[in-house]
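FIELD: query
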Amino acid sequence: MQSNSPHLFIISAPSGGGKTTLCREVRRHFPDMRYSVSYTTRKPRKGENNGVDYHFIDKDEFKARIGAGKWAEWALVHGNYYGTDTAFLDEGLIAGDDILLDLDVQGTRKLLKRYRECVAIFIRPPSLEALQQRLEARGSDSSENIAVRLRNAEKEIAQQGLYHHVIVNDDLNIAIRDLISIIEKYRMPP
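FIELD: result
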């Protein structure tokens, strides 16, 4: 498991699984680790900043980059494109830097085929009922939207076998500790 070579640490979780919080804690614990900011064609939400939350670009530019082979992975989700810049990943790996990515299952599957440096970590809720309670507590989604997110979560959880590690996020502090511990093991010199 230990290696001096750089890694792509992929974190995936269903919506409401705690992925954003866990990625923030990883970035705080490992300030030298690069973070891959995804590109999207959707409009920024209130409080989102270009280059921080996402790189916001138009559909024509995104499609041109598809044609030019600029994406390490990309997908069309609910009418908007999302993608990971190949040059960013390749430059980081060549420089010997570890990179943290926040990806869905579809993106993870594509990167696992393309990069041997991937360490895929799936964050799962303790149950779908607990996930539903979290989504409802956020107060930002309609009951229809929550139902869609729960159906998607069930499909994503069914694919957790694709990942090298699975962490059950029942207690956030324990999940943070477990995630940092996994990453530390890969980052330690042999």
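FIELD: remark
The chain has a mean pLDDT of 92.
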